[in-house]
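Re: [help] complex structure
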Amino acid sequence: MKKKIPYTTKKKIYGFLFITPWLLGFLLFFIVPFIQSCLYAFQDLQTTDKGMVGTWVGTYNFSYALFRDTDFIVQCVNSLKDLITVPLILVYSLCFALLLKKEYPGRTTMRAIAFLPVIIGSGVLMDIMKQDVFSSGVKGADTVYLFSGGGLTGLFSSMGLPMNVIEFVNNIISKIFDLTWRSGVQILLFLAGLHNIPEYVYEAAQLEGANALEQFFKITLPMLTPMILLNVVYSVIDIFSDFGNQIIQMIYNTAFSNVRFGYASALSILYFILIAVVLVVVYLLMRRFIVRPED
Amino acid sequence: MKIKHKKRMGIDNRRSKIGNGFVIVLLLLLGAFMAFPLYYTVIQSLKPSEELFQFPPRLYVLRPTGQHYTELLQLMSNLWVPFSRYLFNTLFVTFTGTILHVVLAGMAAYPLAKHKFPGRDALFAIILLGLMFVGQVTFLPMFIIVSKLGILNTYWAYICPSVGASLGLFLIKQFIEQLPDALLEAARIDGASEWKTYFSIVVPNIKPAILTVFIFQFVNIWNGLSKEMVYDEQLKVVKVALEQVSASNAYARMGSGMAGSVLLMIPPIIIFILMQRNVVETMTFAGMKE
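Output below.
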């Protein structure tokens, strides 16, 4: 008689089998590179005929980045300044999600349009548009090449507007573009969150005589807090890992143009730490506001 | 008053016509901002050269022409590697990478969401780390690993890194978690193995999530194929080829560049249209918990 394997053991075996292939990929293409890069950060790597040779230099790369490479700290501060966009993205995407939740003709089309930045985002089109259509918000929006050739600036100055007004309008337009094009995923997540709030909560509130504003602040907003946290985290990561980001460019150039792999690794790790610190601070600040529904 | 209406979204169906009108106008305005760059690129790619460099530029085209597209195709056909080769490379790599990612991530998500085993939470925390530090920051060590594995300059250099990506796993896990335990329990009582439970109960129920991840990943691989990992001209993808063409000719950048970017947008959009119904379902799926 065949020995019967208990169900729980079987379940464990299957669970293990299910996870393993993906985990292998994850180990190989995230964990190992991550550790490798930590090791490289303490070395000076030189390309020789025998391939890459590393000399152990201790924390030299780190101290160089922090104390002597003035560029790095400046760029870090600039990156932190970009975080101002996060609250704007949150408010905008929440409003948009609220608008998309309501049923009306053409809702599906609107949702598809809201999803557009996700489909095209960060692609070639994005690169081209950032140069030709609107300037990237990352570098500070001083020029908007909305139209090739003269740009918006030229168009406005030919209309006889003073320079500071032009700059102001340019800034606003480019900020709105940036906002709409950065909010695709956030809108999706908020929408899912809104659909998660049971309708009966609102019905009960209405019976008790709560008006729309009260309903929004006492039901919708608290119920959305887990999604808000998720969105803050996503937006922070999104802004920090944008290819237009100066630090990313700097790391990239250090590694591939200047071929200083060790130093580039140290920069990546410092940047890792910066992101992690920001996220921890965000989490600690937001933790007390997070509402977890009891069921 | 208007603000009040906005906040009431989805709660009150007896809204005034003014409120509805306001919402529609607002949506149209925001939608225009989102759709405009797309529209503008298409329009620019259709303009004949003399219109393209006109000032002030028009937002419509007087005499639409396909000359940039034919020009682009001519440029492409002059290359020593035929365009069809680039196209095959891109399609092969994108589809293989996407399918592998969706299948593997989906399978890994199931035990993470529904099984209890020691170290599960720790594992998930590490996966979240992977989600945070994705992209260019890990690119450098990834490059080194790819070269050490000896798959530099092969198709695998495109495909493999996407297998271990964590975004898909994260999204699918969130959806599997929402499936009622009773459903899985019922399958077990009926004698289904875990294998069978996953493929005939879990997968059909999270189809929208899987398709969403499919689109995400397709677009990611399509747009993000890193040119540093593959330097053999025979193995390059359409995106890189197009960039090379437009970089070699600054003047062509405007016309052919625009045409090229329009062409590059088409596959992701086709994939989106094919799966759009399911993606939209995903958005509302979260509401149908039980």
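Chain B has 14 helices and no strands.
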